[in-house]
Fold this sequence. Notes:
binds adenosine-5'-triphosphate; 14 helices; 3 domains; Helicase, Ruva Protein, domain 3; single chain; about 35% helix; Rossmann fold; binds magnesium ion; about 25% strand; five-stranded parallel sheet; seven-stranded antiparallel sheet; alpha/beta; CATH 2.40.50.360
Amino acid sequence: MEEIREITQKFERYSAHSHITGLGLDEGMRAKKIGGGLVGQIKAREAAGIIVKMIKDGKMAGRGILMAGPPGTGKTAIALAISKELGKDIPFVQVSASEFYSSEMKKTEALYQTMRKAIGVRIRDTRRVLEGEVVELDYNMVPNPYNPTQKVPESATITLATKKERRRFSVGSRIALQFMYAGIAKGDVIIIDKETGRVTKVGKTSSGKRFDIEGEEIVDVPDGDVEKDKEYTYVVTLHDLDEAKARRSTILSLFSSESREIDNEIRQAVDEQVKDWIEQGVAELIPGVLFIDETHLMDIELFAFMNRAMESEMSPIIILASNRGFARIRGTDVVSPHGIPLDLLDRLLIITTEPYERDEIRLIIETRCAEMGVVVDEKALEKLTDIGYKNSLRYAIQLIAPASEISKTRNSGKIEIEDVERAESLFVDVSKSSGYLKEWEEKMLS
Ligand SMILES: Nc1ncnc2c1ncn2[C@@H]1O[C@H](COP(=O)(O)OP(=O)(O)OP(=O)(O)O)[C@@H](O)[C@H]1O
Ligand SMILES: [Mg+2]
C-alpha cells in the first residue's frame, strides 16, 4: 500500500489559537461582541466574513488580502478563523515567510510549492477503499528520532466495522499520523483509500458523538463490506499531483529526501492533465488560501515571484500578515508601507486590526482560560489583564499554562494572583516583548 507523503497540517503552531472556532458573525454578517472565540476587532472580523463569502463564491481567485496591525492584535487568529469558516473542502495552508528560506531548495521553489499546496482539485473517481466505523484504534508510539521528548506513532492497528462485518488492519506511520492529525477517534466513520493511503473522515455515528456542540455530521454505520470499490470525490492539491508525478518519472526519487525541487515541466504536465480532467467533467479546481504570516521576512525576489504567480489561473488566494508600519523591503533599500512592494500592495485588499481596550484583553484571557479548562480567580485575572495591557497580550496568554501548573503544585484547582506572579518571574519575556513594541512604535513614527 502506497502512502500519502504530505501532511501539511502542523498542529503545534495552532495551539495558541485553539480557542478560535470561527469569525463569530450572525446571519447578517455582523460580528457579535464575542463569537467563535474571538473578542472585539469587529471591523476586521466583518471584513474577513465578506472575504470568506467571496472565496466560497469563487470571486477571490488570484487576489490577495493583507492583514495589517500591531503585534498581538489577532491577525493570525483571524486568519485561522477564516480557515475554520471555509470548511475542510477548501485548502488552507499556513506558513511563516521564514519557512521559505531553507537549505533544501531555492526560496522561490519553496514558495511555489507552497502556493500549489493551496490549490485543490476535486476529483470524481472509483477507488478501492476501506470504509467503516472506527471501533478500535491503537497507536504504537515511539520517541521522535529528531526530538526524543516527543512521541510519534510508528504504526497503528485499527478495526473498522460495517453493519455486516468487522475487520482489523495494521497501518504504517504515515497513515497513523493522518489519523492523529485528523483526530480520528472511536465512533468516526472513515474511508481509507487503499492505493494512496489517504484518510477521509465522513462523520460520526450517533454512538461516537460526545457533545452537542461538536458540529460534526452524524452519519449511519455503513452497509456492506469494509473493503469495496466506491465512487467518491476527493480533493488533492496540485502539489500532491506534482509530487506523485515527480515520483513516477524518476527512479532517483527512491533515494532522495522528502522535500526537493520539482521540475517545471512536471508542473506543466500536471496543469495540462488537470485541465483535461476539468474538460471531461471529472474534476473541478478549488482555489484555496495561502496564509503567509510574518510577511516582513519575504524579500524582493519572493515578492516579485509571487506577484507573477498570482496572475496565473492556478493561483491560490493569498493572505499576508504584517505588523510593520513603514519598513525596508528585504533585499533592497526601498522603504515601503508594511515592507511590501507597491505593485503587490496594489492588488491587495487591506484589513487592519486595532490595539485592544483593557476590557477586551480581559475577555480574551477569560475566553482562553475557559477553553483551556482552567479556573482563574478574580485578582489573578486582573493581574493577567494588566500584563496583557502593559506588556503584550501574547505574553499574558502564554503565562496561563505555567500559572496553572504552579497552582497545581499548591494543590489548588484555581489560578491565584501568586501563581501569576510566580509564572511572570520565571518566564520573563518582558524586556524582549517591550523591545519589540518599541521597535514597532519607532517604525510607526518614522
Ligand atoms: N480578538 C481576539 N479574540 C480572541 N483571542 C485573540 C484575539 N486577538 C488575539 N487573540 C489571541 O491573542 C494571541 C495573540 O494574537 P495573534 O497571534 O493573532 O496576534 P498577531 O496580530 O498575529 O500578532 P503578530 O503581529 O505578533 O503576529 C493569540 O493567542 C490569539 O489567539
Ligand atoms: Mg501573527
